[in-house]
Amino acid sequence: MRKELTKVKIDAGLHERFETPTRFLLPKSSSLSENSSKVYLEIKKELVPIQLKESKDSFEAFTILPQMKVQEILEGRIVLCDVEENEEQFSHSSNGGVLTVSYGRNLIVGYNYGSWLKKPYFYPVVSTNGVRVTEDGPKDHIHHRSLWVAHGDVNGFDFWSEFESSGKIEAKDVKVISSGKVFFELSSKNLWVERSGGVELYEDRTLKVWKLSKDLLLDFSISLFNDEKDTKFGDTKEGGILSVRVNEKIKVQNGGRIENSFGGINEEETWGKRAAWCNYSGNVDGNAVGIAIFDHLENFRFPTYWHVRNYGLMTANMFGVSFFTSSPNMRGDYLLPKGEVLKFNYRVLVHEGKDPSYIRSKYIDFIYPPKVEVLV
C-alpha cells in the first residue's frame, strides 16, 4: 500500500546539512492521525519516518532530514506506506520515581523525579557508543546532579545546594507526550518550594529526545513563572538554568577538554565568559565522547555566561554577572513580574568526541533549521 498525501519543498539554506531534526505543519486529513506509524517523507529515493503531533488546525510533522548540500532545494512527497516493521523506535518505562527512555534495546536517558529528591534531574545520559557521559552527585559537589535545572537565589532562597535549609524543586506532574520512531517527548510540571512550604516559582519543563546515527540530541523547553507574586533571580554564580556534571574521566583534570563557540579552551578561557555554546569532551575507557549545551538566540541575555570548571561542571548562568565580570557594580539580578513567563530553549548534543567545526554545524541546525514548504 502506498498513498501520496502531499508534496513538500525543502530548502537547506546557506549551510550543509546532515541528519537535521526538522518540524513543519501538515494540513489535517482523514488519512492522518497522531498515532499514524506509516507516514514517511519520500526523498532521494529513501523513505524517512515522520512522527505526528496533532494541534488545533493541523498536524506538527517531525522528521530527521538526510544530508543536503549548501543551498540545495529538494522536492519530497509525504506518503502513507506499508514497510517492513523492523525500524527501531523509542520506548520508556517507569519505576519508583524514575522514567527510563530507550531507543531500540539501548538506554538513552533517565528522568529521576522521586519525592525524596531535592530536585528532579536526568541520569544517566548515555552516548550512542554506550558511555555514560554524566555523573550524579560526586563527592566534591553532591548537589551536582548529572543534567539538571536549578538556581541558588530565587527570592533569597537556595535551590542549587542540597543542605537541609535548601529549597526543593518538586515534580508534580510527569507525562509522556509522544514516543515513536523520530523522537520521544516528556513534560514535567514543577514547584520550587522553600523550606517552610511556600511556592516561590512554577516551572513547566519539556524534553524532546532525538536519536541520530552517532549523536543524541536533547531539546529542553523551560518556562518559569509565578502568577501570585514577583520573583527575583539573584546574582550568584551558584546556579544555572541548565547544568551538566560530566563523567569523572572526561573532566579536564583527567585529560578532557572544554571549548566554547569563540574557541576559548578550558576553565582559564571559558569560565565567566559569554558564548553561544560550550562543549566538554574527553575519553572514557578508549571511547571518545562529549556533551555540549547550545544557548538559543531568543534566550534571556543571549549569549549566556558560563560557569564551567576543569573539575567537570558546565552550566549556563545568565544571572551571576558580578561574579563573572569581577565587578560588583555590574549586577545580574532579574525581577520576573507576576504573571509573566521567562522561557529558555536549549539543545544538548551528546556526541562521540566530534571536533569544533562539527559542533558549530549542529548549532546552526538548532538556530537556523532548513525550511520546509508544503505544496498543497
How many beta-strand elements? 26
Which architecture of the largest domain per CATH? Distorted Sandwich
Number of domain units: 2
Gyration radius from CA atoms, angstroms: 21 Å
Q: How many helices in DSSP terms? A: 3
Large-scale geometry: globular
* Cα distance spanning the termini: 22 Å
Strands across the major sheet, in which order?
8-9-10-11-12-18-23-22
Please state the oligomeric state of the protein chains shown: single chain
Would you state the CATH class of the largest domain?
Answer: Mainly Beta
- The fraction of residues in strands falls at over 45%
Helix-strand string: EEEEEEEEEEEEEEEEEEEHEEEEHEEHE
Mean pLDDT: 95
Q: How would you characterize this protein structure?
A:
With 376 residues, the protein is mostly beta strands. The chain has 2 domains: 2-87; 90-367, Beta-galactosidase, Chain A, domain 5. Helices cover 6% and strands 48% of the residues. It contains 3 helices and 26 strands. The strands form 5 sheets. Strands 8-9-10-11-12-18-23-22 form an 8-stranded antiparallel beta sheet. Strands 13-14-15-16-25-21-20-19 form an 8-stranded antiparallel beta sheet. The protein has a 5-stranded antiparallel beta sheet with strand order 4-3-7-1-26, with no helix packed on it. A hairpin with a 5-residue loop joins strand 14 (183-193) and strand 15 (199-211). The protein is globular.
